[in-house]
UniProtKB/TrEMBL annotation:
The keyword Isomerase does not apply. One of its GO terms (molecular function) is DNA binding. PROSITE patterns: HTH_HXLR. Residues 11-110 form the HTH hxlR-type domain. It holds the Pfam family HxlR. This is Helix-turn-helix transcriptional regulator. Keywords: DNA-binding, Transcription, Transcription regulation. The keyword Transcription applies.
């Protein structure tokens, strides 16, 4: 069930999870990043039921992660494609971090199923960087509440 207003939720992690934390949502985004745009493409790739997929797509559209665009094949009724918005593209960092964590902490004997590479073909990894560009280990990053955290 979508949450229409997130204004009363202080924690940004909780707000994000209300949009993308339901089962299948991040996998829908993975498939969208891989080029899926149509309902049947998502359904076939994920093996998810139609009603659950429809609900996930609706939530992702409602919160601006995907946008719905109409299309019509000759002789058929109008349908919709789903395309990543800028917010959806920005979530690729989250997907990359989850994939990297899975590769590091839940490795398969066969090795990683996806390699992340720069446009120049170099392998890339996600890291925290401080304002001067130095890498900071995740265990050394501290979270501090701001005045906005009531």
């Amino acid at each position: 069930m979508p949450f229409r207003s997130l204004d009363d939720v202080q924690c940004s992690i909780e707000r994000a999870l209300r949009v993308v934390g339901e089962r299948w949502s991040l996998l829908v985004l993975r498939e969208a990043r891989g080029g899926a745009t149509r309902f049947d493409q998502f359904k076939d790739a994920l093996g998810v039921s139609s009603d659950i997929l429809a609900a996930r797509l609706s939530t992702l559209v409602e919160y601006g992660v995907l946008e719905r665009r109409p299309y019509r094949e000759p002789g058929r009724r109008e349908r919709h494609e789903y395309h990543l918005t800028q917010a959806g593209h920005d979530l690729q960092l989250v997907l990359g971090a989850l994939g990297q964590w899975g590769d590091d902490h839940l490795p398969r004997v066969q090795g990683p199923s996806i390699e992340r590479r720069s446009p120049a073909g170099e392998l890339v990894r996600l890291h925290y960087l401080d304002e001067s560009g130095r890498e900071v280990a995740p265990a050394d990053v501290e979270s501090h509440r701001t005045a906005a955290y009531r």
